Amino acid sequence: MSFKVGITGGIGAGKSLVAEMFQTFGIPVFNADIEAKKLMEEDPGLIAGIKKLFGQEIYQDGNLNKPLLAQQLFADEENRKIINDLVHPKVIDTYDNWIKKQVHQPYSIKEAALLFEAGTYKDLDKIILVHAPKKIRINRVLMRDSYRTISDIERIIEIQMSDNQKKKLSDYIIINDDLEKAIQEAVAIITSGRCRTDRRGPDVKKMFESLLA
Predict the structure, then answer these.
(1) Do 138 and 114 fall within a single domain?
(2) Tens digit of pLDDT for each residue in 33-61?
């Protein structure tokens, strides 16, 4: 059985970048947020549920209207709860099918923004929290999502579980305000021995260190 490691962090923390550090060298990564978005555009039952909740205009030419969805979700807590109740079970099923295929991998990564909120962290062996200062997070999201404003991002940060709360449930913390330091912290986590099994796997320490060469 693959040793299961979770990676989480608030919006703009850079959890995807950290996950990509592992994925670059062949370590399998399941991105729950990407899978959720994919399901919301491909799963007929889920699409029907979302249209019933938000109206037909939530989809344009078969594509999810992300700006409108974000507006609806972060304006109403009840909407967030309903959409999470619709989407999370589907994502969990997708992950369960995916992890069964990783049985011969020494370890695997699950990246998810709502790892703690959804309670799925309980099924993982170790948790890595990716943290970054608020100002850096806001700037990253502004560069990534042209439809969001500073106020939008601050609101999202406000309603997400705080990093102080997440730290209490995490095994490791990576401060992602500097790429080189983040890589070094990832190396430290791997070489601590607690993210390894007795199975032979890739020499992750050397792999990461090659990024710094």
Answers:
(1) yes
(2) 999 999 999 999 999 999 999 999 999 98
